[in-house]
Structures are given as C-alpha cells and as structure tokens.
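Lab meeting, item 3. Inverse folding demo.
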C-alpha cells in the first residue's frame, strides 16, 4: 500500500512539473509576440486620408448622336432629351486613398493612381482637419505621387527605412483608410520580395499578408521600428492576405526627385531583351539561365553605338549580377542618362566588358507591328520538321526586314522537334546558333554539327517586326 502511494505521489509530481513546463512555454511564446500599440499611436498621426474629386465629362457617344440631330426632324424630341434619358451630363466622381507626411512643412507621399485625373485633392489629418493639396509631381511608371499642403511647419512625419534589409517573415504594420475607415491599423508579415505583378516596367513589389483593402493605396507599410519600408499599392481582388507595396529602396529616390521638381529621368540602353531558359543557356554555352538575352540592339541607340550586338547576353551592370530582364531594366533605369554603365557580356563562349553611355528612356511603349501576310508556298523541309525557303525581295518589307535575308518558315510538322517548340509559320530565321543563315543547306549543316554536340539549337527569329530568340531541342 505504501509503495502504491509513493508511486501515485511520483506520478502527481511528474504531472505537476509537466503542466508547469507547458504553462511556462505558453507564457514564453506569448511574451515573444510583438505589441503594435506604441507603433500605431506614434505613426498614426503622420498618416492622412486623401479624398479626390474628378469631373466625368459627357460620354463621346453623345457627340456621335449629335451628327444625326436634325432640327424639326421626327426625332428632335428624342435627341433634345438624350441627356435626361441616358444621364450624359458631366458628373462628379469621388474616391478615397491614403498617404503619409514625410516633412514637417507638409509634403505627402501617395500613389499616382489615387490622384490621377483629379480636379480636386483634399487631405484629412488625424483629428479631422481638412486641407486642399497641390500635386507636386507624379511618376506613373512606379505609381508614386507627391502632394503638398499648407498646414504650418510642425507636422508629424514618418521616415523611410531600408527595404533591402527587411526579411521574409518579419512583422510589418499597414495604416490607411480602407473603405473610408480612417486610420485603420493591420499587422502581418513580409510574405515575399521582388514580386512582379505586371503593374509596370519596374515591378519589384514587397508582398505582405497585412490586411490591405481599397482605400489603403498610398498608405505606409511600416517595420517594427516605425520606418516606412513600403507604400501600399495593390491587392489581389480574388484573394485574401495578398497585398503589394512599392519598396522604399525604389520609392525614396523617386520621391526625392519629385520634391525638387526634377523630371524623372531614367537610363536607356536601346535594346530588345528576353529571358533565357535552360535550353537557350545550353545552346549559348552558359552554366545557368541567368542574364538578359539581347534580341535586338537598335541601330543608333546607346548599346549598339558601344558595340553591344544581337545575341549578346548581359550578365551584370557595373559589377552587379543580372538575374533576368526585369532586373536589367531596374538597374539601367536607376542610372541617370549620360552616365556610363559597364556591362558584363557573354558573347561567343567568352565574357567581355562594354562601357555604354546611357541615353534617356521614353516612357511611352513602342507600338507593336502588324502581322505580315504570308504566302502558303512550301519550301525545303529540315530534319527538325521545319519547311523553309528564302525570303523574296517583295516579302522583305512586309516581314519587317531591311533586305531579303534569312529563311521563311512556311510549315511545321506537328510530330517533330520544331512542332514542340515556340516557332510558328511566318517566322523568319535570321540566325542559328548565332550564325547568319540564308539557305536550308547551311541551316542543316549547323544542326548536324553544333546542334548535335549541344543537343539543342538557338534561333534568332523575326516575328511581326520584332526580334526574338527561341530554342529547339534536337531530342523529340
């Protein structure tokens, strides 16, 4: 009996110790969770609500109807009441957004899309004080804008932090005006960095699961020190916990230029580029698919003047590695026009260095060429499954060529190596494995020699007036 009691006592003691450990661990975990109270109180006073008013003019359809108006005609009454029936009178459209103060004298950062096209921009400070705002400058390419209000010189401010130092998994706080609910505070973590979402040419977004909703645009994304490491910009409408912010490392430089009244000037190489894939890297003799492949070095532009050629792979800019085309665009854009950039180039199985004096980028996109009309005449068929023939004088201009050159693809066998690759009838093959080609015999010779050794060929094509590279693995 005594032995049984001693056994029960030991079990009780062990359970008590175990329970104590569990409570201790739970208490420790709870103690490690951050408190956002002080951060929200301190930063919130520098966050503002932005209200815009935009005049929507009468629809252009009304102008079309005007040409059919006939005084005294049978439909005169209908046309006279067109505005009433179809509500075509100019009207006011209002929208909401967020922003934050960066200087005591009233400079405010927000998104360009928050104030784009606005006739009036009003800013509400914490405490319901309203001010008319002036648009100092905007940069649509990065969706950033800078406003100014006259509210004295002692306003609360936020300062930019270094978004390059933020790590995935770190806590962040978003403050803004979602759905008109002013100064809402949400918390989460950095989910990813360097996100490309198709918003513009310089996509490099921070992704966060801190709740961001319509009205948060232009508000700050803060680290735990209360520094702005991002400007909340976009959401995935169909998802939850997926928001995007412009990193402060990009925004700070743009805002500084806008504040001084400078025009945003970005470096320009004058090249058409595309990403590499594993087959392209293999065909070009590269160890991996990093870099930006030059599909076209535009004649007369900075890159071509410096000696960059179609088929070169840009591996680095000023010694900084280039992973893909987006990174190349950002690195070049961050260098001012007329300054020099040293490019690390891969050409003919060797590394070279080329110094380029950059031009200035025109933000307007180049127009896409129209699809040329193709003749259905069949040509000689290659082992890759391509039917090809030489380009005629009459076809050259329609195909976007300066002169008759290359091989026109007229047909592709579906059960062939080419049939599994991204080449289409109407493409003109200008080069194979970086060698100009003008006959099917020459094409086949390169395929059997270099192609057989590497197991893949790389083609420089002309498609709809644009140069691009495609690969064809030799194995079916």
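The presenter then showed the designed sequence:
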């Amino acid at each position: 009996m005594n032995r049984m009691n001693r056994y029960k006592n030991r079990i009780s003691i062990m359970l008590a110790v175990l329970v104590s450990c569990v409570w201790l661990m739970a208490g420790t975990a709870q103690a490690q969770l951050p408190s956002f109270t002080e951060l929200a109180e301190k930063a919130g006073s520098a966050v503002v609500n932005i209200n815009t008013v935009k005049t929507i003019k009468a629809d252009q359809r009304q102008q079309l109807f005007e040409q059919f108006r006939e005084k005294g005609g049978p439909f005169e009454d209908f046309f006279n009441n067109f505005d009433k029936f179809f509500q075509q009178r100019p009207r006011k459209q209002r929208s909401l957004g967020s922003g934050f103060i960066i200087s005591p004298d009233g400079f405010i950062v927000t998104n360009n899309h928050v104030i784009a096209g606005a006739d009036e921009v009003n800013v509400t400070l914490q405490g319901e004080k309203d001010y008319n705002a002036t648009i100092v400058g905007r940069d649509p390419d990065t969706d950033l804008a800078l406003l100014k209000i006259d509210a004295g010189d002692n306003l609360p401010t936020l300062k930019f932090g270094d978004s390059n130092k933020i790590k995935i998994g770190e806590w962040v706080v978003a403050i803004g005006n979602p759905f008109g609910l002013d100064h809402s505070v949400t918390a989460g973590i950095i989910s990813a960095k360097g996100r490309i979402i198709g918003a513009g040419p310089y996509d490099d977004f921070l992704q966060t699961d801190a709740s961001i909703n319509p009205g948060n645009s232009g508000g700050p994304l803060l680290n735990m020190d209360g520094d702005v490491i991002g400007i909340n910009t976009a959401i995935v409408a169909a998802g939850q916990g997926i928001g995007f912010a412009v990193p402060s490392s990009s925004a700070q430089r743009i805002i500084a230029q806008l504040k001084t009244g400078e025009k945003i000037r970005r470096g320009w190489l004058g090249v058409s580029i595309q990403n590499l894939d594993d087959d392209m890297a293999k065909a070009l003799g590269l160890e991996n698919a990093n870099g930006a492949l030059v599909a076209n070095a535009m004649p007369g532009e900075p890159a071509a003047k410096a000696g960059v050629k179609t088929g070169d792979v840009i591996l680095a800019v000023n010694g900084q590695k280039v992973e893909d085309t987006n990174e190349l665009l950002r690195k070049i854009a961050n260098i001012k026009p007329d300054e020099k950039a040293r490019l690390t180039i891969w050409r003919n199985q060797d590394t070279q260095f080329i110094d380029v004096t950059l031009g200035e980028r025109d933000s307007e996109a180049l127009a896409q060429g129209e699809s040329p009309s193709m003749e259905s005449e069949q040509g000689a068929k290659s082992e890759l499954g391509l039917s090809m023939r030489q380009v005629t004088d009459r076809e050259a201009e329609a195909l976007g060529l300066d002169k008759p050159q290359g091989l026109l693809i007229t047909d592709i066998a579906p059960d062939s190596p080419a049939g599994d690759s991204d080449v289409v009838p109407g493409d003109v093959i200008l080069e194979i494995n970086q060698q100009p080609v003008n006959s099917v015999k020459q094409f086949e010779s390169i395929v059997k020699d270099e192609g057989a050794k590497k197991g893949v060929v790389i083609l420089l094509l002309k498609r709809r007036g644009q140069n691009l590279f495609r690969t064809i693995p030799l194995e079916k």
